Amino acid sequence: MADPAFSLRFRDDEPHEEPAVTLDAFLDQADASAVRLEAGEDARLLIPHLARVQLVEIAFPRFRDGRGYSAARILREAGYAGELRAEGDVLVDQLLFMRRCGFDSFAPAAPIDPEVAERLLNIYPYVYQPATDDAVPVWKLRHG
């Protein structure tokens, strides 16, 4: 079930003051607070710097490229609490799964109807596996 406090945000809703820099540039700049991870880049390199990161933008060059899901989960499980944005070929039917992996902001290449997105984020009342969100798997609800 989607978090009731979650609000679907798009890039233009709350512009980040500092543009996201590449991972290499971020690691070289002690004052950067926004970073962009391209597909295949190692999110674990950010773990020592999570305290200063305000935005991590993860690129989805194609909808079928799932490496961004892993990067999001790695960062959330490491304790990252800042904005995690999925950018690029983000499709409406992926939003629920992206949310469960820790994304809280989306910058899709093609427009997404916010009403459709909210409906799809709430389509399933139960989940089957643990993730980075607070949803309790249905088997745990049944069997404690």
Automatic annotation (TrEMBL):
<dbReference type="InterPro" id="IPR008318">
    <property type="entry name" value="UCP030820"/>
</dbReference>
<protein>
    <submittedName>
        <fullName>DUF934 domain-containing protein</fullName>
    </submittedName>
</protein>
<dbReference type="Pfam" id="PF06073">
    <property type="entry name" value="DUF934"/>
</dbReference>
